[in-house]
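INTERNAL AUDIT FORM
Audit reference: QA-55
Scope: verify that the stored structure record matches its stored sequence.
Auditor: D.O.
Record contents follow.
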Amino acid sequence: MNIRERSEALEERILAPYAAKSRLARREQAMEEDDYRTKFQRDRDRILHAKCFRRLKHKTQVYITSGDHYRTRMTHSLEVAQISRTIARGLQLNEDLIEAIALGHDVGHTPFGHSGEKVVSDLIGHPFHHNEQSLRVVKYLERGGQGLNLTQETMDGIEHHSGPIPPKTLEGQIVHTADRIAYLSHDYDDSLRAGLLHDGDLPQRVYNVLGRTTSEMITTMVADMITASAEQPKIHQSPEVAEAMDMFRTFMFENIYQSDILAHERDQAVFVLKSLFQYFGDHFESLPEEFVAREERWSREQVLVDYIAGLTDSYALQLFEKIFLPPLWSLPKDPILRKSS
């Protein structure tokens, strides 16, 4: 018995009956089994080492003009993984599958957060959903267009971590809710740090049910999911906590995500992405060669979407500057100008 087989046998002994078992997982393309890692562990490692995951460190969570201590898509994904694993351990579910889904769930996000998602939707004339793009990234775009060949369970969890269709596995259902736990709590924390919100701004009902601090809020929501979902074939929350979370989410959308406070940043992001999309639409051959080569397979518009969605915030700004802004000339050798500089 090798290490992988020992891990698979351990899953059968200690995981709940409703847990996903890595031994039963399937890929679209058959692969030789690894002697050391289960299928879900290999999924996690493939995502962790992929370019799409590394790019998340330079993609906005909420604040486009952010400092060192604000969340990015990468830190958000790591926080979702941690919260999800805590819930999975409490329910004796598969932590490896949980981690793979959580690390990969946002790899299809555009630069500049949901502002980028909206501008892509406007440009192509139909909704762009980051969860669908995340699936597309891991299934088709990574590894030079070959994809990561993940298990069906991991891809299902990534695709349905948001949207109306629930994931098929309990592990995927955990990530679906843990994603909301993470972004509500941590975006609230970032908003306090940015001075856009203050302690006491949330509806009193949210504080009464979930707690006052970010830590208290996360603990309450995590404990509630474990307690409500124990020994059941579906992930639940208590009605009281679910109601408070909905109230919390509504407040954050009205006062932060869609507020006038960040309107100027959103407008700037829209202008940059629209300009880049239109430029590369007119100068398609100036895209990287690997993208140009995909036109016949996927259409020009889809390739443009893949390229723009894959940009980091910082690289999108660099491209915009390179394409649309004139170079900065050296200052004239005027003693007054030299002194003022």
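Auditor finding: record pair retrieved intact. Residues 50 and 286 are 24 Å apart (CA to CA).
Action required: none
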